[in-house]
Design goal:
By secondary structure, this protein is α/β, with parallel strands linked by helices. About 35% of the residues lie in helices and about 30% in strands.
């Protein structure tokens, strides 16, 4: 997979390292010259020193052959422009970091595949830690904050332990995956939930919170 990452900050550089380590062809576009040289010296990836909001720079990065572009700078206007250029150049998947929730709709209207809101996602994580207690992990906010993706550890005293997924009948929540030890399970109706499982779910915030408490055994 050919991946362009616009923004070589901490998130961008860590992601570049992880993706290149998995054998993907990664290009990082970083505006700050010093930072660009630093990334190039540490990672085995191509680094372009330039503004990711400019067409010529993205062409140098190979936008015409990219499978995905991730705009991860701390400036929404740069991320928005990079995404717009990528869309016009026919990049199949475009993912953006949104630093200001007020800009989320602009990214959605542009047709960005996934817009990750940093403020909402972080606040959701801290809210889960504060109100949900141990064993609840906020993963992602979606739909401009209308939905949440949360992972919860099934507690030893949970009434859900030993039950089939079909018996839970969760409302306004979809259980997307279960991690059991080193095994990833894509659940079906007859999948049995066990204590110690990590359950990833997506749905409306209140519904997700209610099911999370039930799974933990509160």
């Amino acid at each position: 997979m050919y991946v362009i990452i616009v923004g070589g900050g901490k998130t961008g550089s860590i992601l570049a390292e992880r993706l290149s380590g998995r054998g993907h062809n990664v290009v990082v576009v970083e505006k700050d010259e010093r930072r660009a040289h630093e990334i190039a010296s540490k990672l085995n990836v191509l680094v372009i020193n330039g503004n990711g909001a400019e067409l010529d720079v993205l062409k140098d990065a190979g936008v015409d052959k990219a499978d995905v572009l991730l705009a991860l700078t701390d400036a929404d206007e740069v991320n928005l422009m990079a995404c717009e250029i990528a869309r016009k150049q026919g990049v199949p998947r475009v993912i953006a970091r949104v630093n200001d929730d007020a800009h989320a709709k602009m990214f959605e209207s542009l047709g960005v595949d996934t817009a990750v809101s940093i403020p909402t996602t972080l606040s959701m994580l801290f809210e889960k830690i504060l109100l949900g207690g141990a064993g609840v992990y906020g993963l992602l906010s979606i739909g401009g904050g209308k939905g949440e993706v949360v992972e919860v550890k099934v507690g030893p005293n949970s009434k859900a332990a030993g039950k089939k997924l079909s018996e839970l009948k969760p409302k306004d929540v979809v259980i997307a995956a279960i991690v059991r030890g080193d095994e990833l399970i894509i659940p079906k109706g007859d999948t049995v939930i066990l204590a110690g499982d990590y359950v990833a779910m997506v749905g409306y915030p209140q519904a997700v919170s209610k099911l999370a408490k039930f799974l933990r055994g509160d």
